[in-house]
Amino acid sequence: MSAAVDAFLAMLAAERGAARNTLAAYRRDLEGAEEAIGDLTTADRSAIASLGTVFGSLAPSSVARKSSALRQFFAFLFDEGWRRDDPSPALPRPRSRRPLPRLLSHAEVSALFERAEDEASVDNSAAVRLLALLELLYGSGLRATELVSLPLAAVPRDAPFLTVTGKGGQQRMVPVSTRARQALSRWLALRGEGGRLLFPSTSREGHLTRVRLFQLLRGLAARAGIDPDKVSPHVLRHAFATHLLEGGADLRVLQTLLGHADIATTQIYTHVDSARLVALVNARHPLATRAPGG
Any idea what DSSP says for residue 197? Predict the structure, then answer.
């Protein structure tokens, strides 16, 4: 890898607080581009345009992600004097539409909780931990990485809030339901002493991994009679947002709870059926109560 790539990644870490996973993804994208066309600090526009062919077999969303990484990198090179031009216009620009996440119904969420509560009724540590994880995913809308890496210090004592460190090192406070606090109390009693992490494990990171969390949820889904392919940490986070929106929550409040920098992201995560939106307009719009011609 070129020294410019290392400098760019260092900037992302220092100035933007980019997470390790984010930095690794940028490195893979930039490394792949350099393997295809050579040193990015000297590549001409025709070479950069050829990346459209190199990326030809990829999904539009993957091409868009790689192009975004390269666009930011070239802007950095220009600003820092590594290049005398910004060749970003030569990059491929696929039209990418983010798919809506899969949905879980209220009945399916209830089935998950019923099974998790039943399994945790005998105070088995693994079952109680899974119940606490489920409560925080669906009850607080945490991302998988945020959840598994929670420190003990984030657990509320008197106030019903968790302090969560999200993308880019940004902190936010999310509410913790009475149910979730009860599950956490049970888990802490079984977890034992030592360590600073809420969900410790023998993994390299020292905490439960995202992959293991994914496996645990799919296993629970199967035992609850739900198609395991429908359940993941992301799906439960989306269910949290969608069901709150259906209950009348404000979109800006959801944006804060989910830790989204852009309200457009929240709108994607919180789609509701069109029939409910039509009913809402008919019931709440100021003109809805006026008789025609009145």
Answer: B
Q: What is the pLDDT of residues 214-227, one digit of tens each?
A: 999 999 999 999 99
Which among 83, 129, 237, 238 is annotated as catalytic? Answer: 237
Range of weakest confidence among 12-26, 251-265, 275-289: 275-289
Residues 6 or more apart whose CB falls under 8 angstroms from that of 157 comprise none
Q: Which two tokens stand for residue 68?
A: 């975004």
Rounded CA separation 161/181 (Å): 10
Active site residue 243: no
Q: Catalytic pick from 143, 186, 210, 243? A: 143
8 Å CB contact between 92 and 51: yes
Choosing from 83, 191, 238, 260, the catalytic residue is: 260
Q: Would residue 66 show up in a list of annotated catalytic residues for this protein?
A: no
Q: Could you tell me if 183 and 128 are in contact, meaning their C-beta atoms sit under 8 angstroms apart?
A: yes
The pLDDT of residue 259: 77
Question: How far does Cα 242 stand from its chain's mean position?
Answer: 15
Please tell me the pTM assigned to this model. Answer: 0.62
Instruction: Say which amino acid occupies 264.
Output: A
Nearest to 155 by CA among 110, 202, 113, 199: 199
Q: Which of 69-73, 183-187, 228-232, 243-247 has the lowest mean pLDDT?
A: 243-247
Options 27, 179, 234, 271, the catalytic residue: 234
Alpha-carbon span 279 to 64, nearest angstrom: 36
Our answer to whether residue 269 is catalytic in this structure is yes
Options 167, 218, 223, 271, the catalytic residue: 167
Beta strands of the chain (E only): which ranges? 161-165, 171-175
Q: DSSP states of 122-154 as a string?
A: G--HHHHHHHHHHHHHHHH---HHHHHT-BGGG
Render pLDDT for 111-145 as a digit per residue (tens, 0 to 9). Answer: 999 999 999 998 899 999 999 999 999 988 888 98
The question of whether 207 is a catalytic residue gets the answer no
